[in-house]
Write a structure and sequence with these properties.
Helix 3 runs parallel beside helix 4. The termini are far apart. The protein is built from eleven helices and 13 strands. 37% of the residues lie in helices and 16% in strands. Helix 4 links the parallel strand 5 and strand 6. With 328 residues, it is an alpha/beta fold. The strands form four sheets. The chain has a seven-stranded parallel β-sheet with strand order 3-2-1-4-5-6-11, with helices on both faces. Strands 7-10 form a two-stranded parallel ribbon. The chain is globular and about 55 Å long. It has two domains: 196 residues, NAD(P)-binding Rossmann-like Domain (Rossmann fold), CATH 3.40.50.720; 108 residues, UDP-galactose 4-epimerase, domain 1.
């Protein structure tokens, strides 16, 4: 198949590109490199057509859809605090960009579209593991814009018959996750701290748990969705387990320090993956112990990442507390 991967230079996108190429598909990547890195595709640069463009503005990138069979839409702005500070930019990237992509995909008559949604749409769920039918409670603009993008995709599937699926990713980690920019995902923070010999900054008491899902498992879920003939459906993508932050620190090894809990964060993320396993035949393969071992083999990747401490985190998350409540 000829596949367009938006955000293909990013963390998850580059692993999706690797898998598609390994299975013999042709790949075109559209990325404006706002968060993705060309270096993530350096090892396959000769095998990929890279278009550097912005989906938020209709432009030359649309021509890439003309001969495409499949589309994987991963391009998005992520992270909580920047979305609070810049809701306009997040809406343009995550909502307007998705709308423009859907119009291009519809006009081209593509055979399959997979949208990368976010488990953050659940907010603070009532039940664990959390099913796809759980209420939507986005707590910050990033989560809201990803949910709005998903609703657009589902509406285009309903009204225009677009052969699309949405995958809600839970706490993805692994090699090539973003190292620069704002305070964000726990793995990047912890790995930079480990390299610097600094204590891990644990939010609250560390008993909160997360559904850490290894990136190659996520790439396999995307491929399973592309190969399916189901349309207009939403599937969770998780690890099948939930692991405490304290357990993660035990696996990484090192000292720890504690920082205040943050508003709008659930005590647990834990995906109910029964729908995707039964309908798409996908299963996660990498448990947390194996995933941590694999990521530590690539730890030098985080050598130039910012090293956060309680003071710099408090400053970086000031707007988080200001707008969502609580005390930093």
């Amino acid at each position: 198949m000829k596949v367009v991967v938006t955000g293909g230079s990013g963390f998850i996108g580059s692993h999706v590109v690797d898998l598609l190429l390994a299975r013999g598909h042709g790949v075109t990547v559209i990325d404006n490199h706002s968060t993705g890195r060309a270096a993530n595709l350096a090892h396959v640069a000769s095998k990929v057509l890279l278009i550097e463009d912005d989906l938020a503005r209709p432009g030359g990138w649309i021509s890439a859809f003309k001969d495409a069979d499949w589309v994987v839409h991963l391009a998005a702005l992520a992270d909580i605090v920047p979305s609070i500070q810049n809701p306009t930019g997040y809406f343009q990237a995550n909502v307007d960009g998705t709308f423009n992509l859907l119009q291009a995909a519809r006009a081209a008559g593509i055979k399959r579209l997979v949208y990368a949604a976010s488990s953050s749409c659940y907010g603070i769920p009532d039940h664990y593991p959390t099913p796809e039918s759980a209420p939507m409670r986005p707590q910050y603009p990033y989560a809201l814009t990803k949910l709005l993008g998903e609703q657009l995709v589902m509406h285009w599937a309903q009204v225009y018959g677009l052969p699309a699926l949405s995958l809600r990713f839970f706490n993805v980690y692994g090699p090539r996750s973003r190292t620069s920019g704002t305070y964000g995902a726990v793995f990047g923070v912890f790995l930079a701290q480990k390299l610097a010999g600094k204590p891990y900054t644990i939010v609250g008491d560390g008993t909160q748990t997360r559904d850490f899902t290894y990136v190659t498992d996520v790439a396999e879920a995307v491929l399973a969705a592309l190969q399916s003939d189901i349309k207009g459906e939403i599937f969770n993508v998780g690890s099948g387990a939930t692991v405490s932050v304290n357990r993660l620190v035990d696996l990484l090894g090192g000292e720890r320090t504690f920082i205040p809990k943050r508003p709008g964060e659930p005590e647990t993320t834990f995906a109910d993956i029964s729908r995707i396993t039964s309908q798409l035949g996908w299963q996660p393969r990498v448990p947390i112990e194996k995933g941590v071992t694999q990521i530590l083999r690539h730890i030098e990747y985080w050598r130039e990442a910012p090293v956060w401490d309680p003071n710099s985190i408090a400053e970086a998350t000031r707007d988080w507390f200001k707008y969502l409540g609580g005390k930093p």
